[in-house]
């Protein structure tokens, strides 16, 4: 009897130990399953600030975001419609954007903390230069507006508040001895300006946008328009005062309605990031944009201008991550 009780006790002890062992294995399995997501690299959410939907930045930024997401699973980049360059800088400062298209004039003044729009240096560094963005100065055929001088006293769309166009317009007028005092300025986005032309609410519009631009083509589908040529003296005067500008020429045929070359002020477009972005992320973004150029070109025609030949120099300092990428790949200006 004692032997049977002893054996029964041993058997029960074995069963208890076995049960404990299974429980530990189960806990271990559950712990491993719970830890699995932590072992997986977290996806970094990045906001790409562009501009209005009627311009070039938004569709180009959307195409670039897709290319980055396709090849770099550690990122989830989303292109966001914004007011444009000046607003994009402010989004950097509020940490509401991570990447942005910013025109050279805006980037320079933001980095320095100078000009009418910036009172202190902004949280901004460059990844690369892309294309030369022409300034469209638009009037309707038969309006009699054929020069910048003719804009005096006219209703002129100067871009939406906080846009690169509005910033650029003020600088161009100032360099030529004019200001908003000389015109009836209307703060309108590109799409709003097209509607205002159609409703006879404006006489002219200024648009800093890559050509061909959707909004300008939309205008041409309903109204006959002209693009005003700036004289060489006007262009040189503006560049002498603001050397980050450059001459731009829109070739005839850029728009179906325009059968002549158009000389105007251009501004290099930079891809910028927040200065506090980590080096590895800035490196990877620079790599993505310059490695998959064919795919970016397929997304938008101006993607062809995003390449190693145009990337350097930049009017503001490079982010250390971008600088390292160029050094590693022997890319110089």
Automatic annotation (TrEMBL):
CDD domains, per the entry: PBP2_TAXI_TRAP
PROSITE patterns cross-referenced by the UniProt entry: PROKAR_LIPOPROTEIN (PS51257)
Keyword Signal: yes
Designated name of the protein: TAXI family TRAP transporter solute-binding subunit
Signal peptide residue numbers: 1-21
Domain of life: Bacteria
Native species: Formimonas warabiya
Keywords carried by this UniProt record: Signal
Keyword Signal: yes
InterPro entries: TRAP_TAXI (IPR011852)
